Amino acid sequence: MYSTTVATDFVAQHYLTVPNPGPEGEPHSHHYEVELTFSGPELNEYDYLVDIDDAEAALASLADRYRDELLNDLREFEGDNPSVERFARVVFERVTDVVTDDTVTELTVTIWEDEEAAATYDDAV
Question: Which Pfam families match (predicted)?
């Protein structure tokens, strides 16, 4: 299995909406690091798994979308607790809509909200 990973970082804000979230229930910032790992068993005719320019463009678009935003105010989090786990799923859905290389069979999204805590969402594409 081949894998290609691209990463970026940005600052965004959120607050948790679960019962009794403690201080996490107040708006606060995280310096998020987002890693996208594309996987598949075969390379294309150019010996690429994924066009890295396309992957980096998708990542740049994500960073532009979320940088300095309050996640709670965004449509894709409407009605959901904007946890880092939910954020990883949202990013997965956005990326699989735009990076469509036939050789990619799985995408793993890992989002670090600080140096010690991260969440991952992965699935077949």
Answer: PTPS
